[in-house]
DNA sequence: GCCGTTTTCGGCCCGACTGTTTTCAGTCG
């Protein structure tokens, strides 16, 4: 699939246009098209062959022609032209906070600055303060922005943001006069990674709240501080924004700062259609200018005749239309989870015994767990020999005889070998209650080979679930080269479930693939993949992904009660 | 550049903060 290449080119083109001080809506148009291609489920080449490029939202005549040109020739002439006109290095200046296209164009014109190094030199030599609308503070801010850029961390995983949010909230909650306080943004939408953290609050003493926020021990730098908002940098170079708002506007503000941007743009258009202008402060009636205030977010959506949209699905992928038609999905809830089908134990490389895992499962309110240790090919981690697996099956059977409450299922995470065969015989796999198959070795193989390995595992009637199907590790390892559409099609055909691995570094399948899988009738299994009892609570990250993927209780294998699950496991 | 049960032209979300001004342009989210 060339979707990613195409969207990257469109993103770059939009940056180049921005530097040319092009019409800003043109810039936005290219970004929108790039995002559409990025999240397109079909192969863009296929869509192009069918002549349906312009059916893609945000793609019109001009962009469709450029995509076609790229797919045909591997180049886009307009792109090459503008690239040759733009000094290299100007685009990297856009990444500095506070530097927009106008400023960069002026610096280029007046001081011939074409790189971050040029800019740093000019600022240090005090040449920038002589320019219009610039001064000593501008120079200082530029140098700071450069420093931050050089030690910038990319987006942080959700589980890293969580303790920071918890600490900020618990500190500020002690203050007098505080009303509401909550984190918005991609954190509230439970995206797998978070850029900045947005905190929203109401308070009788805004000034106290702002100054307490700026003085928190974790704060390393204060970037801005006004009467109603402040921005700080805390540990790990994470930016945290605090905004204080009138209680009567809390609903509109929370809505606005939860995003996403695309969701909000569309929501404001819905408001306009209905004769209102929606801002973070109010809903204003256009005919008489009357302002309506909503302290609660639910009321904002209700005022537009919409059902309340869960934050996790506010990405403008159909949720607004669904809310207008009152046909939003009833999203899966953590409470719906009845068990965990992929847990490792001390039989192999896990750190907790089956007994400890069972006790934890009970505490979590589960009905069942499946102990799925590795197979022999994972040499270093002590994968179980066939004999040991048989022994484990017998021991677990004995445990179940004497236990009430939690049913322990015998399972395995069997390796899909480099040649596509499985690491245990079919006879042995047939003795397991749950067979989770996954790929650990030879991950560098070509797309065709990897896809074939996964499909042959799917076609093995003993295999129930494909674990961490793409193999990606957030921020560390890209997904395998694979044809996911073909894999999902095979899973649908064979009645094999796909995993949402809830390990916060994996989250694999991700939200989008999970939604695609649901769409073609595949069951999803949300598994902790815990290697110790304490990590079984990672389940909630998997539920976040499931909710973002529009999953409902009925789509999820381990939201079934035990009897229903056992019926499903013996489905063939 | 895209888009359209008010459409093929004229919109495209909108307000806070900053640094420089002395009324505002640029950037950000």
What does this structure look like?
The chain has 572 residues and is an alpha/beta fold. It folds into five domains: 1-86, DNA polymerase, domain 1; 92-144; 156-244, Beta Polymerase, domain 2; 249-324, DNA polymerase, thumb domain (Beta Polymerase, domain 3), CATH 3.30.210; 334-569, Metal-dependent hydrolases (TIM Barrel, Alpha-Beta Barrel), CATH 3.20.20. The chain contains 24 helices and 17 strands. Strands 11-12-13-14-15-16-17 form a seven-stranded parallel beta sheet. It has a five-stranded mixed beta sheet with strand order 2-4-7-6-5, with helices on both faces. Strands 8-9-10 form a three-stranded antiparallel beta sheet. Helix 8 runs antiparallel to helix 9 (136-150) and helix 13 crosses helix 15 (297-303). The longest helix is centred in the first third of the chain and has 17 residues, at 3-19. The radius of gyration is 27 Å and the shape is globular. It binds one DNA strand of 29 nucleotides through helix 2, helix 4, helix 7, helix 9 and helix 14.
Proportion of residues in extended strands: 5-15%
Distance between the termini: 34 Å
Shape: globular
The residue-averaged pLDDT reads 90
How are the strands ordered across the major sheet? Answer: 11-12-13-14-15-16-17
Structural class: alpha/beta
The radius of gyration is: 27 Å
């Amino acid at each position: 699939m060339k979707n990613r290449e195409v969207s990257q080119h469109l993103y770059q083109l939009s940056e180049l246009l921005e530097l040319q001080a092009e019409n800003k809506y043109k810039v936005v148009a290219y970004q929108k098209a790039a995002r559409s291609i990025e999240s397109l489920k079909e192969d863009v080449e296929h869509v192009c062959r069918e002549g349906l490029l312009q059916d893609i939202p945000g793609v019109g005549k001009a962009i469709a022609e450029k995509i076609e040109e790229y797919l045909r020739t591997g180049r886009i002439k307009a792109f090459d032209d503008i690239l040759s006109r733009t000094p290299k290095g100007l685009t990297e200046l856009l990444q500095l906070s506070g530097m927009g296209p106008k400023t960069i164009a002026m610096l280029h014109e007046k001081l011939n600055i074409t790189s971050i190094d040029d800019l740093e030199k000019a600022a240090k030599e005090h040449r920038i303060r002589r320019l219009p609308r610039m001064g000593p503070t501008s120079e200082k801010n530029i140098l700071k922005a450069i420093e931050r850029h050089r030690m910038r961390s990319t987006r942080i995983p959700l589980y890293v943001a969580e303790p920071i949010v918890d600490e900020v909230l618990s500190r500020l909650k002690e203050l007098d006069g505080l009303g509401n306080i909550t984190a918005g943004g991609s954190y509230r939408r439970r995206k797998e990674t978070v850029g900045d953290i947005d905190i929203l609050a109401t308070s009788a003493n805004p000034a106290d709240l702002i100054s307490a926020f700026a003085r928190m021990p974790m704060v390393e730098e204060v970037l801005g501080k006004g009467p109603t908002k402040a921005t700080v940098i805390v540990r790990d170079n994470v930016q945290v924004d605090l905004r204080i708002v009138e209680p009567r506007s809390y609903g509109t503000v929370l809505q606005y700062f939860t995003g996403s941007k695309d969701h909000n743009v569309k929501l404001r258009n819905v408001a306009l259609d209905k004769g209102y202008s929606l801002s973070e402060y109010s809903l204003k009636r256009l005919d008489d200018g009357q302002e309506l205030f909503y302290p609660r977010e639910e009321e904002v959506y209700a005022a537009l005749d919409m059902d309340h949209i869960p934050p996790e699905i506010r990405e403008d992928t159909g949720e607004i239309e669904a809310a207008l038609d009152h046909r939003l999905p009833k999203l899966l809830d953590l409470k719906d989870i009845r068990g965990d089908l992929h847990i490792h134990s001390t039989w192999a490389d896990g750190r907790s015994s089956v007994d400890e895992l069972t006790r934890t499962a009970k505490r979590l309110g589960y009905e069942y767990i499946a102990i799925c240790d590795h197979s022999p090919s994972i040499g270093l981690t002590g994968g179980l020999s066939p004999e040991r697996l048989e022994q484990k099956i017998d021991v677990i059977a004995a445990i179940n005889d004497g236990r009430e409450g939690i049913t322990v299922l015998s399972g395995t995470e069997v390796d899909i070998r480099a040649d596509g065969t499985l690491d245990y015989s079919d006879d042995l796999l047939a003795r397991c209650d749950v067979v989770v198959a996954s790929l650990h070795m030879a991950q560098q193989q070509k797309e065709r080979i990897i896809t074939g390995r996964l499909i042959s595992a799917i076609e093995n009637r003993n295999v129930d679930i494909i674990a961490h199907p793409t193999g990606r590790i957030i921020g560390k390892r890209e997904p395998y080269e694979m044809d996911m559409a073909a894999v999902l099609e095979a899973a649908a055909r064979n009645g094999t479930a796909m995993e949402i691995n809830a390990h916060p570094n994996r989250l694999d399948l991700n939200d989008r693939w999970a939604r695609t899988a649901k769409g073609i009738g595949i069951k999803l299994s949300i598994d902790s993949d815990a290697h110790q009892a304490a990590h079984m609570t990672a389940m909630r990250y998997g539920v976040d992904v499931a909710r973002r993927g529009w999953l409902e209780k009925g789509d999820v294998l381990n939201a079934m009660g035990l009897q229903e699950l056992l019926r499903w496991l013996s489905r063939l």
